[in-house]
């Protein structure tokens, strides 16, 4: 769960574009503006203190340093494109001051732009000699249409700087929790690490993640437990220890609250589906498609 988006490299392009399969993505931020296109299934996006459920063919945009989380009942495929604001520096400098609103599910304007987005993705994985030049033009045209058709506003320099500081703090929090979730962890520990007051940090977590510090930590531990339930034969006791629960009772209670059933029932029902091993996308935060697999999947993709 450690910032999977940031560590992926796709050559020397100034932007990142990739096809992923995921079932859950913890709250995270990145400094680029990100466009996402859902190819199949349904996914819930938690962002800006609200939850929006998108379906196949829906497209949305998240702003730089904006915390967001993705949840799906079954693994879904998403095309993601992350573009640094420096990409627009020469052609349209005001882009660094633009902030986009989240489109509603099945929004007609966003659905229309989904076709353009898919064309960019196909071009990205194309082997044609002039594909790099062509997709650079497509990206500029796509963002021109975004500015014209989706709600957006221009933010001040102070707002941008505040947003960047907020995003960096969110990164520090999530990294710290990722490194220490197996231990007994209190808000006082994190406040000491970040040199912040408990009251400020508590309010910050509530605002950034849409939940309390303890609720977010519980969600992270339950997701780790879910992965171990599906991918290993570890006992519930060993899983509870590995994920930072003091005993099996607290694992059962937290897991049931998060997933609506006990850990034992979750494992049993999953394995009873067809008896096959769990797919990687169910066990990990997200699974990246290779360029060859992406090219094949996008070539046969049709949007609703």
Shape: globular
Strand proportion: 15-25%
Low-confidence stretches: 1-12, 279-284
Q: From the alpha-carbon coordinates, what is the Rg to the nearest angstrom? A: 20 Å
Question: What is the chain-wise order of helices and strands?
Answer: HEEEEEEEHHEHHHHHHHHEH
Structural class: alpha+beta
Amino- and carboxy-terminal Cα gap: 31 Å
Task: Give helix % range.
Answer: 40-55%
- What profile does the largest beta sheet have? 7 strands, antiparallel
Number of helices: 12
Beta strands, count: 9
The averaged pLDDT comes out at 89
Quick overview:
The chain has 304 residues and is α+β, with helices and mostly antiparallel strands. The chain contains 12 helices and 9 strands.
Polypeptide structure, described:
47% of the residues lie in helices and 20% in strands. It is built from 12 helices and 9 strands. It has helices at residues 4-7, 108-124, 131-149, 157-180, 187-194, 198-209, 213-231, 236-242, 248-259, 263-271, 280-283, 291-299, and strands spanning 16-28, 33-38, 42-47, 50-55, 59-62, 68-83, 98-100, 152-154, 286-288. Strand 3 (42-47) and strand 4 (50-55) form a beta hairpin. Helix 7 crosses helix 9 (248-259) and helix 7 (213-231) runs parallel beside helix 10. The model is unreliable at 1-12 and 279-284 (pLDDT under 50).
């Amino acid at each position: 769960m450690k910032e999977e988006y940031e560590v992926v490299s796709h050559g020397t392009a100034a932007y990142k574009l990739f096809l992923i399969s995921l079932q859950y993505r913890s709250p995270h931020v990145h400094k680029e503006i990100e466009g996402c296109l859902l190819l199949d299934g349904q996914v819930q996006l938690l962002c800006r203190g609200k939850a929006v459920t998108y379906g196949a063919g829906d497209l949305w945009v998240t702003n730089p340093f904006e915390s967001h989380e993705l949840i799906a009942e079954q693994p879904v495929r998403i095309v993601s494109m992350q573009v640094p604001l420096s990409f627009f520096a020469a052609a349209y400098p005001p882009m660094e001051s633009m902030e986009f609103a989240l489109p509603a599910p099945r929004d007609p304007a966003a659905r229309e732009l989904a076709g353009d987005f898919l064309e960019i993705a196909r071009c990205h994985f194309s082997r044609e000699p002039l594909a790099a030049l062509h997709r650079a033009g497509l990206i500029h045209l796509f963002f021109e249409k975004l500015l014209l058709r989706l709600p957006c506003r221009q933010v001040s320099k102070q707002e941008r700087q505040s947003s960047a500081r907020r995003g960096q703090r969110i990164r520090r929090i999530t990294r710290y929790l990722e490194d220490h979730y197996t231990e007994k962890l209190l808000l006082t520990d994190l406040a000491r690490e970040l040199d912040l007051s408990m009251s400020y940090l508590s309010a910050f977590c509530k605002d950034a993640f849409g939940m309390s510090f303890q609720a977010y930590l519980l969600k992270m531990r339950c997701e780790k437990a879910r992965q171990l339930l599906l991918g290993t034969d570890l006992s519930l006791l060993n899983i509870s220890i590995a994920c930072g629960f003091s005993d099996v009772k607290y694992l059962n209670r937290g897991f049931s609250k998060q997933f609506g059933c006990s850990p034992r029932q979750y494992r049993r029902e999953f394995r009873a589906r067809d008896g096959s091993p769990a797919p990687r996308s169910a066990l990990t935060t997200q699974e990246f498609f290779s360029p060859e697999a992406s090219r094949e999947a996008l070539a046969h993709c049709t949007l609703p």
